[in-house]
Every structure is written in structure tokens, then in C-alpha cells.
Amino acid sequence: MRQSDLYNAIATVMGTPEAAEAERAPLVTRHMLREMHTGHRARLLLAEDNPVNQKVAVRMLEKLGYRVDVAQNGLEALEALARNRYAAVLMDVQMPEMDGYEATAEIRRREHEAALAGRGKSLNTPIIAMTANAMQGDREKALTAGMDDYLAKPVLTNEQNYGVIATEPGESVEETIHLDGETDDWGRRTGGPEGLGDVVNWATDRILGQGLGAEEREYEDFDLSVSHDEAYLYLLLEKREGEWRFPDEELNVGFGTLPGGSETADKAKGVGFPEGGIQNLLQIKSAEDSHLWINSAYDPHTWLYGKKLDYMPDPTIEEDPQAGVFLPWKLALNRPLVLPQSKRKIPFEDYEVGLMRPGVTDPSDPSFDSLADWYAEGDVLEVRIPWTMLGYTDPSTLRVWDYPYEAEGIEAVKADRLRVYPTLRNPGQTSQEEVDPLGYSWRGWDQPTYHERKKESYGTMREAFDTYDRVATPPR
Questions:
Q1: Which of 212, 237, 304, 409 is the most exposed place for a label (fewest CB within 10 A)?
Q2: Full-prediction pTM beyond 0.85?
Q3: Cβ–Cβ under 8 Å, residues 449 and 231
């Protein structure tokens, strides 16, 4: 969903003049909206249970000029509506305790009773359904439940939707860790203040837990540093002697968030992961053979599509989290389906997202690769891993999903720290070794920081539009 779709949906259900002009309006950008509607302070209610989605939606709506109250579920939404009047409600359809459909039905029932009792004018609060799983028939279901409009998440600006603006973590590009073989970006996190003028800000950030630092530990073959931002966990491994020599050596890094994880792994024979075990295992062997593996008992993909829905033809299912069975990290591509015209059967398909790709992530580098996961140059090895692939449902509050087979679903639980187990081995080595973990934790955050970067396609699109303008505009 584009940001303009969000604005137009709100404008439509509120009956504002802007909606009537939407078709004749020029392309709407967030900059235009900011200028046009800074004085508009209508009050909205956002019913959303996911903390990350709450923060993103509130920030975007406030940029559009609205005041926003947040309800964690349908029951809280009903309580808020009993206390206040809102210009519109943005209602997530899937929430605990009471979902969006039930909440909407109850809102409409109360409004109908109030109208029959003659308590003032008939009130019909505009309600916009929001869901991350847009399926055929969802819009009709939302309208049938009494909602006024329907939008699919996530919300994107026009620029992001068309792929010309990248939204990246950190207040600026200088604050972002790039995989490029250089360590100056790490130095800004592990070092002291930049001059006397920065002492107060540097000390204040660290006292309040707001500064992004790094945890460091020395190992036999390398020094390890761990840091993070709102999008990734980062690893820096600096070789003590010589350079990184893949595929002549093999790096294994275990990650543990919950107790009761596996202290062994079939992918890393001989390596022990004490003090809680692991749920994920990173292996870097070569440019073509590097993977992030997931503990079978912790794998939501196989639990959902292999056991619960029975879509996978021959899934590997091991429900014991200490069994040491690790699977490729996969996501579903499509459900089994039958094409309506040809009646052709399409089987369930998935793909491996845990295949770790080498490359440079510095946008100023000619070899920039936004999809890269690791990069080694000389004695420096850098890795970045998306939070979700380490089991985090909300890194801002240090929450991960629990073992799905034991919880019989995907349930978020608190993880006070992340255990990181790194070890360097020779290919095929099976001798016994126990790895002491580095414990990494952080204070979380209330608002994600980000900056926007113009992609290469921005210049391409601009040149194309300039050419179009010259052709379309006749000379005088």
C-alpha cells in the first residue's frame, strides 16, 4: 500500500474534499502531503497489536498531519471509542482478544443502539481495515463486517513503492555499518567521542542507552565485535594472523536466544554450544556455499507448511529442540493451487532465504549489492543478518518467537540477550570443541531511526521524465 493510498482512504471515508479531487491531482509524494496538510489535525485511532507496525504507522500518520491514539486490540479500541470521538479508525483485522472484524461489528451495534435511543445524531465512525495478508475476498469481508474501506500493509510512500528511494536504518548514511572490508564505521561505535565538543552527547547517549555501541570479545583466531541497528545484527571478525581464506577454512557462528536450544548441530560436527544452546547456525564456507540454518524444532516454515497444513511432500520434522537437526531457512513462495482456466495443478513451492550472499553494501562503491549478507577482505570479515532470521518478532523490545511445536503456534516471548558462538574450523574437521558465547543485549528503542537514499533508478527515472517533458512540450 502506498502512502497516498493511505491518505486517500482516510480522506474518502471522512468525506473530505481532497478525496473528490484525487483523480485529477498530480502524483502525491510525502513532501507534498507534508506541505499541504501541516494544519490538518484530525484525531485518528490506530488499532494494531504489532509494536513495530504501531511505530511505523504512527510516525507516517503524524507526518501526514494527524493526531494518533493507539489501541493494542479490539477491546482497547472499543474502550477508546467510548471515551473519545475519532475522525476515523485504522483497524488491523488480526489482533488478540478481539479481532478487527468483531470490534467493527460491536462498534456498529453500539452506534445503531445509540441512534435508536435518540442519543444525538446517528454516528457512523469511518473504519478502514488493514491487513498484511491481502487475499481475494478480503475486501468484501471487510465491507460486510461494516468497515468503510480496505488497505493492505505495509504502507509505503510513492517513492518507495516505485523503487526510487531506499529507506535504510540510522539517522544518516554515516551511522550505518557497511560491508566493505573497512572498519571505520565500527570505530565510531566502539571508540570514544569525536573531539571535546562531542563529549557531553557521547556520554549522555551511553548513560541513557541511546548510543549504538558494540560488544567485543577476543577468541583464539580472531577478535569478535557485535552491533546492531533497527534492521540488522552485525558481526565483525578480525583475523589475528593472516587473511580470511575461504574455502580453505570454515566459519561457524551459532545464535541462541531461548533456553533449551541444541548444544550440537548436524551441520557443524564436533562443535558444542553450551549455556543454553542455539536456534540458528551461520556457516561461511565459500562464496557459493554459505548458509544460515535453523533448528528444526524452531523452524516456523516446516511447522506451518509441513506439519499443520501438510503442504510439503516429505518434510524433515524434528520437534526436539536439543536433537541437533538443522534445516535450510526457507519462506513459502505459493500455496498449492489449480489454475482456473487450464486446471493445471501448481504444487507448493518455497525457496531458501538463508543462502548467504557475499558482496559490498556501501552504496558509493561501484560493486554495491543491496542483497549482500557478508564480505571478507584481508583480515576483515563483516556479516549482517536481518532480525527476523534470528527469530526476532520485535527487536525493539527484545522479543522472539517461542518453539512453535511446543507453543502450538507462533507466540512472542522475551529474550533478555543473544548468545553468539563463533568458531573457525578446517573443512571437514570433526574434533570436539566447546565455544564460549559472547552475550549481547541492548536497551531497545521506541522510535526506529532511518534515512532515505536515492537509488540509481532515481536518476534514471528523472532523465526519462525530463526527456518526456521536452518531447511533450512544444517549443514556443
A1: 409
A2: no
A3: no
Q: How far is CA 334 from the centre of its chain?
A: 21
pLDDT at 2 over 90: no
User: What is the separation, in whole angstroms, between the first and last Cα of the chain?
Assistant: 41
Q: Strands (DSSP E) along 61-140, which ranges?
A: 67-71, 88-92, 127-131
Average pLDDT across the chain, whole number:
84
Note whether 453 and 178 are within 8 A (CB): no
14 confidence band (pLDDT: 50, 70, 90)? low
Where do the structural domains in the chain lie, given as residue ranges?
A: 3-161, 172-454
412-440: burial string, b at 16+ Cβ within 10 Å, e else = beebebbbbbbbbbeeeeeeeeebebbeb
Nearest to 265, CA basis, from 251, 250, 254: 254
The residue type of 368 is F
Confidence of residue 23 (pLDDT cuts 50, 70, 90): very low
What's the CA gap between 441 and 234, in Å, rounded? 13
Q: Choose which CATH entry (3.40.50.2300, 3.90.180.10, 2.60.120.10, 3.10.560.10) describes domain 3-161.
A: 3.40.50.2300
pLDDT of amino acid 38: 42
User: In the numeric block, which cell numbers belong to residue 341?
Assistant: 482456466
pLDDT at 64 over 90: no
Q: Which distant-in-sequence residues (6+ apart) come within 8 Å of 307 by Cβ? A: 315, 317, 405
